[in-house]
Amino acid sequence: MKKSKILFLILDLLFITSAFIFFIWLKPASRRIYLPAYYRPFLGFAFIWIVTSLIGDKFNLADKKRLKDLLNPIFRIDITILAIAVTLIYIFQRFSYSRMIVFGTILFSISLEIIFVISYYLHRKVRNGFDNPITLSVKPKFVGPIVLDFEDEKFDYKLPEIKNIDETIYPNLKNKYLIDNIEMFDFIEQNINLDRIKKSESFIIHTHTLFNIENVEPASHQLFINLHRINDIRRINMYLIQINKNLKYKGYFIGNCETIQERHKKYFNSFPFFIAAPLYLLDFTYKRIFPKIPILKETYFAISKGENRAISQAEILGRLYFCGFRVIATTEINNLFHFIAVKVREPKEDPNPSYGPFIKLRRVGQDGELFYVYKLRTMHPYSEYLQSYIHNKYQLEDYGKFKEDFRITSWGKIIRRFWIDELPQFINFLKGDLSLVGVRALSEHFFNLYPEDVKKLRTEFKPGIFPPGVAEEIPKSFEGTIQAERKYLLKKLKHPIRTDFKYFFIILYKIIFKNIRGG
């Protein structure tokens, strides 16, 4: 038997034993009455549980790749065990058994199994690169001025020369501030020409409070470095916006944080899997999910003061872009994600950047008017502000989406596959923002990637929930999407009702019978 099977078998025994003891403990006078009366039937139940599970191959996790394949045997076999338990109680007339102890033990054990299997699945996906952690640059050797391609124009980062090296930040940064962190100094030196940045225009601190940076004169610094990780900062956006104010245009901000990817590694490298999995799940729930849910969010920040928050790599990059920065380089040093960002504009004025599980995103609608479309979150927070960066780095695939989009969460990929994230768009349909059939509602960035003729056609009609690309037998690519939309929109110009009616039933047929899914 494989080691993974033996481990799951042992864990399963622990699950059912813990569940049994828990419900015995809940009953009054449990030690005196219930434990002596129930421990023999429990041993028989445990035997049936393990044998049935072995016959049904429930413990074979390693060979199953999809979450559905991992969960199917859990539900199938445990329902069988529940049916066996009910049948035996009826055959032996054991109606005096406590329903809370019997069914509570079974249902609680099933819940523990499901939590473990989901944790195992997510762990395996992260380990195999499912979340696609990225590196924006690979420590390029500095060979001259850095030229970056931004949204509107190119910026040349060549700073004026300083003849006296002692007037620059270079000696202090190397021999004082980062003397014990040579790897970080090398990372900075390879991406920034330090001998062109004045010491008097540099600010190096190690703090998690705003107090130390609020009184700095606006637009007075060329370089700002905070050696303290961002995870401990209570109001991250306020902090980044304040740094933006303090920096000159094209000034550099260097910081670090512990990402959820690094947090995952820390747990699973420090503990055996059966200990690391529940510990990481608890940590992720409290420090990643709680801060995003109303009411729980207030409780979390009141207790934690915002310290040691779990942050994804996509979220910290998105926050930087939202607050007026462009990231030019990243690396991992001492299990922390380090970045170098450049101030390129003022922070965005969007008062409600997406953060919670239910989000609204600004899209281009009929007549070019902007509106908000409702969706369930499948990406890390602030991911929408990374569109221009992602577009420059990755190719577009089906229906204009990105390949290897690291912004999408592990569970988000599952939700997208079955279009569950699109369900809130029926609110837009009821409000009159969307049609049932129509081209996808696009962000301003994506909209501007389209040819002028298609942009004009798009604004003639409302966007839709079901996209025409699903109905067309056109190669799935960005160009194919444009071709499918142009074909649909030209037909709709001539016969609007008949075209939508026809496309709707073709799309419905392909979803039901051809297993077409979202992506």
The residue-averaged pLDDT reads 82
Provide the gyration radius in Å.
28 Å
Separate helix tally: 19
Strand content: 5-15%
In total, how many domains does the architecture comprise?
A: 3
Structure description:
The structure is a single chain. The chain is of the alpha/beta class and 519 residues long. The chain is 49% helix and 12% strand. The two termini are 37 Å apart. It has helices at 3-26, 30-55, 67-91, 99-127, 170-177, 182-191, 211-214, 236-246, 260-270, 273-289, 296-304, 313-322, 387-393, 410-417, 425-431, 444-447, 452-458, 478-494, 496-513; strands at 147-149, 154-156, 202-205, 221-226, 247-257, 325-333, 336-343, 358-364, 370-376, 435-437, 464-466. Strands 3-4-5-7-6 form a 5-stranded mixed beta sheet, sandwiched between helices. The protein contains 19 helices and 11 strands. The protein has 3 domains: 3-127, no CATH class; 147-259 and 311-343, 3-Layer(aba) Sandwich (Rossmann fold), CATH 3.40.50; 358-513, no CATH class. Mean pLDDT is 82; it is low at 129-156. The chain is flat, with a radius of gyration of 28 Å.
Show the helix and strand layout:
Elements: H1 3-26, H2 30-55, H3 67-91, H4 99-127, E1 147-149, E2 154-156, H5 170-177, H6 182-191, E3 202-205, H7 211-214, E4 221-226, H8 236-246, E5 247-257, H9 260-270, H10 273-289, H11 296-304, H12 313-322, E6 325-333, E7 336-343, E8 358-364, E9 370-376, H13 387-393, H14 410-417, H15 425-431, E10 435-437, H16 444-447, H17 452-458, E11 464-466, H18 478-494, H19 496-513
Helix pairs in contact: 1-2, 1-4, 2-3, 3-4, 4-10, 9-10, 18-19
